[in-house]
Design goal:
alpha+beta; Alpha-Beta Plaits; four-stranded antiparallel β-sheet; 3 helices; globular
């Protein structure tokens, strides 16, 4: 294979590796969150982190649901630090990978 063929193969296989890797989902229970402003503040801060695709916050469940971009692994400690810096307390965390 020449350089051009290798480049073409890499361009085709790299996106496939991201799809195959699935997306990681993190749920974090949060103490101290009681209003829409609290939820918005957490959502805004977490969305700024690299690799975070979507963030949804439930005031009723006192939980944040974070979906990472395909192929990106969550840095749970970084997520918790952002929540703490926003004035809230992260409690229980669950992580799963969706195919």
């Amino acid at each position: 294979m020449n350089h051009r063929q290798i480049t073409m193969v890499a361009l085709i296989l790299y996106p496939l590796s991201l799809i195959a890797a699935g997306e990681q989902v993190v749920d974090i229970n949060i103490e101290g969150m009681s209003c829409k402003f609290c939820a918005h503040k957490i959502q805004k801060e977490l969305t700024l982190l690299p690799g975070v695709e979507t963030v949804s916050v439930s005031i009723d469940d006192k939980k944040v649901h974070i979906v990472m971009s395909p192929g990106k692994k969550a840095n749970v400690e970084q997520l918790k630090k952002k929540i703490t810096a926003s004035g809230f307390t992260p409690v229980e965390t669950t992580t799963e990978t969706r195919d």
